[in-house]
Amino acid sequence: MSQPMESYLAFRIGRFTYAAPASDVRQIIHLPEFRQVDEAPGHIAGIVNIRGNVVPLMDIDVRFGRPPCAQYKTTDKVIVFNCDDRPMGIIINEIVDIYEIAAESIVGSPAYGRHEVPENAFIETVAKVGEDIIQILNLTKLFDPCYKPDVDLAVDGFEKPLSSCQSAPSDGIFHRRALDLADSASEEGEDDDVMPLAIIETGGELFGIELEVIREFIGIGDYRQVPCCPDHIVGNINLRGEILTLIDITGVLSLGRGNFKSAVVVSIDNFTVGICIDNLIDILYLPMAGFKELPAALGQADEDFFEFTALYEDRAVVVINLQSILYKGNLIVNEVL
């Protein structure tokens, strides 16, 4: 009997990789310009207006008792979590992956020579994902200022003054992002009116895949080619004991075959398949108001495969219908799958 699985979003901050339940993620945005607040806790870098909601932004380095990051970058992002039905953001460097993790793969965090893990520990469990170990954050404790970082984990001699978080980013890009987020309140309506998407690159183009069909992302450095198969069958890979078929969709999309390094594992209609991609670019929640209708010049076949268009950092993104691509593109091969 298969073990129940839960989705976790993994992300990197500095040299550390953390994860949190994907169900607690409200949205993911690029880091905007924010305002510092005099009486905020020291680990709060500032606040930002996101579609009419005032969202505090946490510097997790300071929260863990480490020095604040040296400088924010335009590539940094913010994950907005639900915290008692209120939004709370964490500034991160990059999204790593979405993992489906079985309960049996989650174990208690090591005590590191102590008798037990402290009650105020922000990391109570870790997950074994293949050869990787992912630290799972306890969001309740992380966002509750009553819990303090364990003194053994803090940097020796480092005492965080109230105002030691670095200055709010003031670059023009950060400022434009802040204006866009604030101005969108009257146009986009409720926060729920967004579509969670994975932005992927394949064949030199950007595409969006709805997160609800995605199980996880994997590297495909070691896969086995299958003889006497159609060209779109890249091969098979052993994914934790499951034989997963890897499929190339660039031919159906009239694109040149890219340099496949990863795959999106999707579950559609009770079957699971890996869609080969060049890169995972981003995971974010795009407002539905930002989507545009498909160009009229597209043919009927293209309309079956594509749903909407949107902009991502001034590049066009087409949201694809994977179910239509697999079925109407004749990519399903029963003998292989």
How would you portray this structure in words?
The protein has 337 residues and is mainly beta. The chain has two domains: 5-188, CheA-289, Domain 4 (OB fold (Dihydrolipoamide Acetyltransferase, E2P)), CATH 2.40.50.180; 194-328, OB fold (Dihydrolipoamide Acetyltransferase, E2P) (Beta Barrel), CATH 2.40.50.180. Helix content is 11%, strand content 42%. It contains six helices and 21 strands. The chain has helices spanning 60-63, 139-143, 172-183, 185-188, 300-305, 322-328; strands at 5-13, 16-21, 25-30, 44-50, 53-58, 77-83, 86-92, 94-102, 106-108, 123-129, 132-137, 194-202, 205-210, 214-219, 233-239, 242-247, 262-268, 271-277, 279-287, 306-312, 315-320. The strands form four sheets. Strands 8-1-2-11-10-9 form a six-stranded mixed sheet, with no helix packed on it. A hairpin with a 2-residue loop joins strand 1 (5-13) and strand 2. The chain is globular, with a radius of gyration of 22 Å.
